[in-house]
Amino acid sequence: MDFLTNGNIALAVTSCYRYPLKETLFRPDTAYPEYYFGIDHVSIEKNEVYAAVRESLHLLGLDAEHYNTREWNPLVDFVKPGDTVLIKPNLVMDVNPSGGGTDCLYTQPSVVAPMVDYVLIALRGAGTIVIGDAPMQECKFEKLIGESGYKALVEWYRAMGVDIKLVDFRGLKSDVINGIRVQKINDNANGTVIDLGADSEFSGVSGETLGKMRITNYNPDILKQHHTVDKNEYYVSNHVLNANCIINMPKPKTHRKAGVTISLKNMVGINVRKEYLPHHTLGSTEEGGDEYARKSLIHEMRSKLWDRRNKLSAQGRIYSAKLLNCFSKVCSVILKLNGLKYAEGSWWGNHTISRTISDLNKILYYADKNGKMQITPQRKVLIVADMIISGEKEGPVMPSPKNVGIIAAGVNPVCCDEAITVLMGFDPDRIPTLQTVRKVKRYTLVDAETQANIYSNKMEYDNHTLLELASDTRWGFVSTKGWRGHIERH
Q1: What is the rounded CA–CA span in Å between residue 185 and residue 219?
Q2: How confident is the model over 342-357, as a mean pLDDT?
């Protein structure tokens, strides 16, 4: 199955806007003919989420000739016996500061569970499953996996004799104390540094501009070491590189820096150290940056204070970092009073993070197990997106719940993201990431002629291209403040 030319997108629509409780271990309520664990391990509680995931694979036409029989193996073209399979959810954070809860924040384990079951069918008793991600540095991973049910689910599979592990990819974590991140470095992080060099989207960018690239709340000196005129390095988890197949399981939401986060943006979580990932470029657009719109001395001062604060925090100089943080808050108040908007590249003018996302997806598809880039794809990737409850407004970290009731599945990440972007109510031509990936020449992510074709159990979507979708089929997402009024599709 050639991912470059397969633009098929499946939308399994339900009337369900809730997830099963973790006490059910997310088991199906029906012993489907192909169900790996049989009649003894079904739930007495209704599980519409499991049914929607199953239906999305059916709508995608996977192993169509065996559907609804004991022999149905929808992942037969993706997973072989003996493979290592990585399931990559979008875990982000353990708490949602918006008060909107975590159902809209991260990929729910009840969506992951059926995919584990279908991987087991394809592995036929021989192989390894890894569930892993690199959430934000301050995410309390144990709290997230405990409260959500991920931990209980994995423990149940292990008790059933499954070779499965749950992994936190991060090489840097932190505790937030009085607004300052106290960092903890894991020098034994399991990753490989990959230099895209001239094949990076940052190739050809001036040394001065490269030196201004930043990622919020991380030491800028480390980023400068890995993106220069001579190299463009990323630090990718070996769990990604060792995988024969990756099940990309995003939680589609609005995103302050990228506009939207779907399957392409989900690959930011394959990194061991986030300091390798440019997210914005210092300064206003008038000065060649994309951090904010208009030139401002106060904005510039605050950014310098943040830089110094992040360096001090990384050095463990917490009290000095706290003092600078207080000064930066004064700048923020002045900027707000003067009506100056946007910070840290959190607006529609950000054209840095789109390049990072493009580079990471090149690595995902074309880097071999040793981190060497090859001319042909090195692993199979299937996308299954959790949109039972999605996130809108100030995503990805502070989203508000958006009831959608859909599981979306696809093979090509570009077509998948374009389709979901349109259905959210946004214009793909105004999402820099989608424009960047469409133009990639080497380590191509989509064939130039490939477009999204939607298949669904709902007539309004079924067998339609994006141009054929009626405007009333859109879901009406509200974008983040920095993108509002700029990306809506009319």
Answers
A1: 13
A2: 95
Instruction: State residue 206's pLDDT score.
Output: 96
> Could you tell me which residues come within 8 angstroms of residue 448 by beta carbon, excluding any fewer than 6 positions away?
438
pLDDT, tens only, 158-208: 999 999 999 999 999 999 887 788 888 887 789 999 999 999 999 999 999
Cα–Cα dist 197/162, whole Å:
40
Task: Name which of 240, 288, 284, 286 is nearest 266 in CA terms.
Answer: 240
Tens digits of per-residue pLDDT, 434-471?
Answer: 999 999 999 999 999 999 999 999 999 999 999 898 77
Instruction: Identify residue 304 by its one-letter amino acid code.
Output: K
For the chain, give the secondary structure using H, E and C.
CCCCCCCEEEEEECCCCCCCCHHHCCCCCCCCCCCCCCHHHCCCCCCHHHHHHHHHHHHCCCCHHHCCCCCCCCCCCCCCCCCEEEEEECCCCCCCCCCCCCCCCCCCHHHHHHHHHHHHHHHCCCCEEEEEECCCCCCCHHHHHHHHCHHHHHHHHHHCCCCEEEEECCCEEEEEECCEEEEEECCCCCEEEEECHHHCCCCCCCHHHHCCEECCCCCHHHHHHHECCCCEEEEEEHHHHCCCEEEEECCCEEECCCEEECCCHHHHHHECCHHHCCCEECCEHHHCCCCECCCCHHHHHHHHHHHHHHHHHHCCCHHHHHHHHHHHHHHHHHHHHCCCCCCCCCCCCCCCHHHHHHHHHHHHHHECCCCCECCCCCCEEEEEEEEEEEEECCCCCCCEEEEEEEEEEECCHHHHHHHHHHHHCECHHHCHHHHHHHCCCCCCCCCCCCCCEEEECCCCCCCEEHHHCCHHHCCCCCCCCCCCCCCECC
pLDDT at 52 over 80: yes
The pair of three-digit structure tokens given for residue 141, joined into one six-digit string: 């991973």
Q: What is the dihedral of CA 22, 167, 97, 177, to 10 degrees?
A: 130
Q: Is the pLDDT of residue 1 over 80?
A: no
Q: Which two tokens stand for residue 112?
A: 């992951």
Q: Where are the domains of the chain?
A: 8-176+185-193+237-271+379-473
Collect all residues with Cβ–Cβ distance below 8 Å to 412 and sequence separation of at least 6. Answer: 3, 4, 5, 6, 7, 445, 446, 450
Residue 176 Ramachandran class (φ > 0 left, ψ -120 to 50 alpha, else beta)? beta
Q: Is the dihedral of CA 91, 96, 100, 101 positive or negative?
A: positive
pLDDT confidence band for 337 (50 / 70 / 90): confident
**pTM (2 d.p.):** 0.97
